[in-house]
Amino acid sequence: MIADLGIAFGRVAFVMLFVLNLGGLLTWVERKQSAIMQDRIGANRASILGLRLFGLFHPLADAIKMLTKEDFRPARADRFLFGLAPFVSVFFALVAFASIPFGDVLHAGGREIPLQAVTLNVGVLYVFAMLSLGVYGVMMAGWSSGNNFALLGGQRAAALMISAEIAIGASIIGVIMVYGSLDLQAIARAQGQLLWGVLPKWGILTQPLAFVLFLTAGIASTKRIPFDTPEGESEIIGYFVEYSGMKFGMFAMADFLETIVVAGLTTALFLGGWQVPYLAAGGFQFPWGASVALPPLAVTLLQVGSFIVKVVVLIFFLMLIRWTLPRFRYDQAMRLGWLALFPLSIANIVLTGLVLLITRPA
Amino acid sequence: MNFGQRFYLREVLSGLALTAGHFFRNMGRHVAHSLGRRDARGAVTIQYPDERRPLAPRLRSLHRLVRREDGSPRCVACMMCETVCPAHCIYIVADEHPNPEIEKVPQRFDIDLGKCVFCGYCVEACPEDAIRMDTGILEFSSYSRDGMIYTKDTLLALEPAGPDGRPTSPVPIPAGRRP
Prior knowledge:
The complex is a heterodimer.
Chain A lengths: L1 H36 L20 H11 L10 H17 L10 E3 L2 E3 L9 H22 L3 H32 L4 H7 L3 E2 L3 E2 L2 H4 L1 H14 L23 H26 L8 E2 L2 E3 L5 E3 L2 H27 L7 H30 L3
Antiparallel strand pairs in A: 1-2, 3-4, 5-6, 6-7
Chain B lengths: L2 H4 L2 H26 L29 E2 L14 H5 L5 E7 L7 E9 L8 H5 L5 E2 L16 E2 L1 H5 L23
Antiparallel strand pairs in B: 1-4, 2-3, 3-5
């Protein structure tokens, strides 16, 4: 009983600490990576006793700055909703990661421990539900601020979220058709099979069009450049115009957390989740006959490590996109969502159905 | 836009290739630099004020008054610089020089750097080579207008910049500057 509770707590704590720490670290990654991409050095001045460590203390300094700033609330703002909005944003971004598996089921001490915070047989739907609920915080912030620009930002966030969410939902139906499950753990496990006996059957190989559509719509749902119309720094400043201090910091944090969730979900659906190519439960089994036996613990560690590496590489890629592309205008973002992503993802469903029908073993 | 560009994805990929190329090239140089290759630079940043850009030898920086061997100003208060100054930022009061060989000496020589446009006409107009703009000092600022007025004693104490263009005298703080 106590052991079960402890295991459940450990699973949740691992996911929470992973997401929260990575989210804090992303503020540093964003500044440093953009700097190196632009031939600059980036933040490196914050120091503890002369120790600078490539500017790694800047997230700490930022947190201290945010916490000690004045927490201002406009006189015409709705007192309750104005305070609630940033918490709603961060909360749904945090809990969305819960059903993403970071490893196969671990057999230890006669127990079966699934390496994900929550085992849900509708994990995909749960993550989407949480991701789309996150926009409620943004809309709340926009409406309750008593500021027309903030209201515009909240409005745009809602429009962007609807256009992106439909494309996300439609684009992963192909994945669900191929792997035949809504459980993220089952989808990740199914991606361990081999395609034509050689290639790992990852989603990016079986559903390449869906991968591009999902990633595009996923970037849109994080509200970051190039889809930062809700923020629109150069025109309306956005839904958090009236926020200051740590409440503003929480909105910034929510964007990073959503980036991690999108990266984790893309990994689980398209990059094989925790799968290492050719690694089965007993060790490596290469298609040309060679095999390396590994103890179960090493296999589990390799799987968790592979998941983390994939997520980090994807986050690098998302940051690369964010610092490469100029932002879409509001109408351009809408046109891309409704006239390109949505029809293409419907076409992908039809195409997947046809291919599955033809290749179905008779 | 041609047909390929209308699809957007191809152009996105070429843009990503460019920025990713910058990232990995600079990252490799940073790593090489930390491994001891001092000539490898991953960024064009000059970390002012820890590092300074080399100054061109002809750069016009803060003025100084050239001294004679006895330490008195070489200036003879001929008012040439005050006359030629387009910004009217030089103010000279002449006085008798004890040496009959020398005509005059400035009793006051004030430059209002808040007005100065750093055109260098005063240096060119000076018949005695008594004012130069070669100190290499660029950082002078003040919270008040009075603090921008540099007097004779301050300007006399300044030294020319070293061969590397770095200032050799500290940034002067005018007497009576309010914080």
